[in-house]
C-alpha cells in the first residue's frame, strides 16, 4: 500500500464521537471529540415514533450499553422489544445509555447519558467549536436501514432521508455533511432529493468494488470500507473512480500509520486521541 503514499494528513473522523473514551453517540462523546480536535464527527441516526431524528447506532435499546428507565439492565433477549421507532422521544430519553461499562473499551468514562436528538448534537458542538475558535466541523451521518426493517424499525428511505435532510438544513450544516449508508436505497433517494449533498457507500464484505457500484447505480463521492478489506488493488480502484476513501474503524496506532502512508482521505476511529498523537509524530 505504500506504493500509493502521498503522505498527506488524513481527516480524523471521531467514530460515534469517541466511543473508546466516552459512551457512544452521546453528547459527552461528541463534545470530547471536538475538544480533542477531530475534523469530522461520525454518528448514526434513527427515527422515533414521533418523527424525531435520534442519534443511535441501533433502532432499539442495546442491552450491552443501555438501561431501562428504572435503572435495571435490559435482558439481551428482550432488547428488540425496546424499539425506538415505536417510542416517542419523551419515552426514549428516559433510558440511560452511558452508565453501563463497555467491555471492549476499558478507557471509556461512564456517566449518565440519554440518546440525543441530532438537532441538539449539532447545536451543542457548533456552539462549542465557535467557543474554541475552531474551524467549522464536518459531519458524517449514517442512516441505519435495511429492507426488512421498513415500517418495523425505521421508515421507508423516501421518508427517512428527508427527515434527516430537514434537520441538517435547519441547522445550516448541509454543506458540511456527508450521508453514509450500507443500504444503497438510502443513497439513491438522497441523490435524487438533494443532488449536491456528499454521499458515502459503506461496505463490510469482500465483493468487488465494481459489483457494489453497479448495485448502487452511480459513483458516490466517498467509499467507506471496513479497514481489513483494504488492499493495494482496492485502493487503486477507488482512486481510479475518483472517490475519496475513509476506512473504518481503525483503533491501532500501527494500522493508522500504514493507512496514513497509503494516502486515505480520512480515518474513522474510536480513539481520536491516538490518531491525533500519531499524526503529531
From TrEMBL:
Origin, by domain of life?
Bacteria
Listed transmembrane segments: none
- Pfam families the UniProt entry points to: GDPD
Tell me what this protein is called: Glycerophosphodiester phosphodiesterase
Please give the InterPro entries that the UniProt record associates with this protein.
Answer: GP_PDE_dom, PLC-like_Pdiesterase_TIM-brl
Query: Where's the GP-PDE domain?
Result: 10-279
Amino acid at each position: 500500500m505504500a506504493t500509493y503514499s502521498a503522505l498527506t494528513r488524513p481527516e480524523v473522523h471521531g467514530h460515534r464521537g469517541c466511543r473508546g473514551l466516552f459512551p457512544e453517540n452521546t453528547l459527552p462523546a461528541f463534545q470530547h471529540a471536538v475538544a480533542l480536535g477531530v475534523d469530522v464527527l461520525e454518528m448514526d441516526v434513527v427515527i422515533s415514533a414521533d418523527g424525531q431524528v435520534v442519534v443511535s447506532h441501533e433502532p432499539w435499546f442495546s442491552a450491552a450499553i443501555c438501561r431501562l428507565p428504572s435503572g435495571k439492565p435490559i435482558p439481551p433477549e428482550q432488547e428488540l422489544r425496546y424499539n425506538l421507532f415505536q417510542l416517542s422521544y419523551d419515552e426514549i430519553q428516559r433510558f440511560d445509555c452511558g452508565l453501563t461499562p463497555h467491555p471492549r473499551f476499558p478507557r471509556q468514562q461512564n456517566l449518565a447519558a440519554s440518546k440525543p436528538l441530532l438537532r441538539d448534537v449539532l447545536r451543542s458542538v457548533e456552539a462549542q467549536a465557535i467557543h474554541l475558535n475552531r474551524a467549522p466541523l464536518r459531519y458524517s451521518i449514517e442512516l441505519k436501514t435495511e429492507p426488512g426493517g421498513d415500517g418495523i424499525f425505521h421508515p421507508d428511505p423516501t421518508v427517512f432521508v428527508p427527515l434527516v435532510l430537514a434537520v441538517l438544513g435547519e441547522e445550516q450544516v448541509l454543506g458540511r455533511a456527508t450521508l453514509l449508508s450500507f443500504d444503497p436505497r438510502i443513497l439513491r433517494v438522497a441523490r435524487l432529493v438533494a443532488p449536491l449533498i456528499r454521499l458515502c457507500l459503506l461496505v463490510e464484505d469482500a465483493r468487488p468494488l465494481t459489483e457494489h457500484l453497479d448495485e448502487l447505480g452511480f459513483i458516490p463521492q466517498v467509499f467507506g470500507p471496513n479497514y481489513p478489506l483494504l488492499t493495494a488493488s482496492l485502493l487503486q480502484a477507488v482512486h481510479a473512480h475518483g472517490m475519496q476513501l475513509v476506512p473504518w474503524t481503525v483503533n491501532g496506532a500501527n494500522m493508522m500509520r500504514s493507512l496514513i502512508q497509503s494516502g486515505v482521505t480520512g480515518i474513522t476511529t474510536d480513539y481520536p486521541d491516538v490518531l491525533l498523537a500519531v499524526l503529531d509524530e
